Amino acid sequence: MKLVHISDIHLTAPGERMGGLNPHRRFAQALDDVRAQHSDAARIIITGDLTHWGEPAAYATLVAALTDLPCPVRLLIGNHDDRTAFLGAFPDHPKDPSGFINHAETVDGTRLIYLDTTAPRTHAGHFCAARRDWLEGQLQDCTRVRLFMHHNAMPLGLPAEDKIALVPEDRAPLAELLSTYCDRIEYIHFGHVHAPVHGTWCGIPFASVRSTGNQSLPDLTEQNLLHGAPMAPSYAVILADDMGTIIHDIPFTWDGPVFSAGTEWENWAKPVAAE
Description:
Elements: E1 2-6, H1 23-37, E2 43-47, H2 56-65, E3 73-76, H3 83-89, E4 103-107, E5 110-115, H4 129-140, E6 145-149, H5 159-162, H6 168-180, E7 185-190, E8 198-201, E9 204-208, E10 215-216, E11 228-229, E12 235-241, E13 244-250
Parallel strand pairs: 1-2, 2-3, 5-6, 6-7, 7-9
Antiparallel strand pairs: 1-12, 4-5, 8-9, 10-11, 12-13
Helix pairs in contact: 2-3
């Protein structure tokens, strides 16, 4: 199974920039690359911060951008999003009985769970009792799971970034639940941090992905300020089968030289100087 993981696209109202960049152009470049290179993907999954200020005009641009794609798209919301405005643009999007943008589906025998971790007027993640009950219901009756969310549930050793991870009081209930069902959860995938971070938590591998906009500069000592820069963006391609998971980082804006060579020993031999 091939999945395309995109995150933190931060769309604005038309004509507005975000962090000095045109987020619409960047997102369009990513989707064009997916069309050209990964039309065989089972899903395109965008894990939140769909917009930068949660404005209806920005969601309208997202609706337009998602037309004519080669495979189904699944959306999550993030801390920069507005749940009401999102549902205004996507009125038929699934949600749980409590109104959270929680949904799930089974693809190629794997349960893909999309968990809403947002709360109003905070950049930190939340996981309330209603969301816990919903998630446990999804985990109970399946054997293979991939969990997608916006926020990092675990601290990442980045003091400033960790202030806007899942709040500590909600982290313990999620950790307890995931530990209970870790035998069936193959991976946790998230965005939010605008950087590729990999590890394990509760015995489960996890991976984040870069933004299509600005990127974070990891700082293991800064306590309060988040550092970012207009470094190259990317999205991830996830290849999953019975043997495991491979995640590729796709630098979709690169337009510089590309060098090609064969795979035979002679292809890499030192050139003989012409006599």
